[in-house]
Amino acid sequence: MDGTMLNNMQFHLQAWEKVVTAAGSDLRGDRLFPQLYGKNSEVLERIFGEGAFSPEEINRMALEKDALYRELYKPTIELLPGLEDFLKEARRQGITLAIATAAIKENIDFAVDALHIRSLFSALVSEREVKKSKPDPETFLVAAKELGMPPSRCIVFEDVPKGVEAAQRAGMKAVAVMTSHKREEFDDYPNILRTIDDFTGLKVQDLVS
After folding, report:
1. Cβ atoms 5, 111 nearer than 8 A
2. Which helix (H) or strand (E) holds 191?
3. Which of 38, 111, 138, 141 could form a disulfide with 133 if both were Cys (CB 3.0 to 4.6 A apart)?
């Protein structure tokens, strides 16, 4: 969802900068951004080390960060160009859709309700439903199971290499969305069908046979 449906990673970065600064880290901008994948608890562990905070402290910091993210992003929230038409066309063709993300459920609800797209999705998989984050394939395998589809019939849309790796490990093809990484960072993944800047001009029939 983040960086794939929404070009929102700069808002996550701003929120994380405030939280990690208050906790004593000097990571900012391009030094902090590469750490921002997976569950909030994993982000904090990568930055501060395992055991730096109690579970209660991690939960408090994570809630603070996501509340700030939603506050920052709400005035300008929008789907990537062309995505709404792409999703609606997929549904017209009988293709089932899922959001499968390491985001918390509150962030998923925030996005799908603000953008009025909840009805387009047959499954919403958040960090609550999985134990292992990407590049572990669990997130995508749970989504496939909820859709009632074998992994080989699924296509993942991802904006980070570790997400494409998770799709590959799940036995799924992928489309790489260039919102936060460069094309050459995806060169090692043979499961990529194509790379896109956004969904403008992308046709469902371009990806399925």
Report:
1. yes
2. none
3. 38
* Alpha helices in the chain, H assignment, sequence order: 9-22, 29-32, 40-48, 55-73, 83-92, 105-114, 138-147, 161-169
Q: Is 177 helix (H, G, I), strand (E, B) or coil?
A: strand
185 in any annotated domain: yes
The string of pLDDT tens digits covering residues 38-53 is 899 999 999 999 999 9
Task: Give a yes or no: residue 123 inside a domain.
Answer: yes
pTM: 0.90
Q: What is the pLDDT of residue 180?
A: 87
Q: Which residues pair with 6 in a beta bridge?
A: 2, 79
Question: What stretches in the chain show pLDDT beneath 70?
Answer: none
> How many domains, in total, are found in the chain?
2
At which of 55, 76, 97 does a domain end?
Answer: 76
Give the chain's end-to-end CA distance (angstroms, integer).
25
For residues 62 and 109, membership in a common domain is answered with: no
What gap in Å lies between CA 184 and CA 32, rounded to an integer? 21
Say if 1 falls within a structural domain: no
The residue type of 44 is L
C-alpha to C-alpha distance for 165 and 169, rounded to whole angstroms: 6
Distances (CA, A) of 86 to 96, 197, 200: 12, 14, 9
